[in-house]
Amino acid sequence: MVFVGRDAELAALGEAYAHAREGAPATVLLGGEAGVGKTRLIAEFAAPLAGQAWLLSGDCPQVGENGLAFAPFTAMLRRLLRELGADGFLRLLPRGEPGELGRLLPLLGRPAGDGDPALTRARLFEEFLTLFENLAEDRPLVIVAEDAHWSDRSSRELLDFLIRNQQAAAAFLLVVTYRSDHLHRTHPLRPVLAEWIAGRGRPGWSSAGSAGARWSGSFAACSAASRPPRSSRTSCGAARATRCSSRRCRPGRTRRCPPPSATC
Predict the structure, then answer these.
(1) How do residues 240-255 score in pLDDT, each as one tens digit?
(2) Quick check: 249 and 169 in contact, CB under 8 A?
(3) What is the distance, to the nearest Å, from the Cα of residue 175 to the centroid of all Cα atoms in its chain?
(4) What is the CATH number of the domain that holds 188?
């Protein structure tokens, strides 16, 4: 099947990957209606990166009203475990132990034990960040969380934690896709997206255009709000596109922020 009409979006993703490859963290929010081709776009972007970058992806399945806890990230862990084996996987973790990740992937071993829920959550988030940091030191890392409109609260909070701590971590590219036509007024993803796309024009942030995509700092927004026409024109960065940056992800930040449940 021929892939046409998304040159601008592919260029925006390519530029974000170049930022990460050069050591600068980058996040891309990819929103569009159901069936517009977000998954195909990601596949076309990822195809030439096979063998030269870590490509970790996971879907947020439509399970009940609240989603499945950490579903996209658990899928990423399973893939890494298959590829690296248990010993190789554990070498990427603090002290070579499964830690709290063992709660999501029992094959790694039993977690250290129960304790204060807030501290347990903080350790889990830190272990994910450490894992991704160590992977990114080996070769470029691309993380894709698809269908975030079906994400559960835990997955949204982990995504927020990763985005806010990219400046303190080894560089990686984080791509989040969602169905814009699912985001009704009270949808739980709406306030999270608002946090991610707010704060343009802060000191130290720069804007650079690429193939029509609007950039601010390390963030890009690709809007696939309508099906591509027969011509090569796209809507990435057009009037209907979401222009985004992050209020919380400040350049030059050298310390990590705690999970959303704690005070930063």
Answers:
(1) 233 333 333 434 444 4
(2) no
(3) 4
(4) 3.40.50
Q: 1 lies in a domain?
A: no
Give the structural domain span for 183: 7-68+140-224
pTM above 0.85, yes or no: no
- Among 207, 78, 49, residue whose Cα is nearest residue 139: 49
Q: How many Å is the maximal CA-CA distance in the chain?
A: 58
pLDDT tens column, 68-100: 999 999 999 999 999 999 999 999 998 888 889
244, 232 contact by CB (below 8 A): no
For residue 197, CA distances in Å to 183, 200, 201, 224, 234 come to 15, 8, 12, 16, 21
How many domains would you assign to the chain? 1
Q: Which residue is listed with tokens 């990957």?
A: 17
Report the alpha-carbon distance of residue 38 to residue 226 in Å, rounded. Answer: 11
Q: 189-197 and 153-164 are packed helices; what angle lies between their axes, rounded to 10 degrees?
A: 10
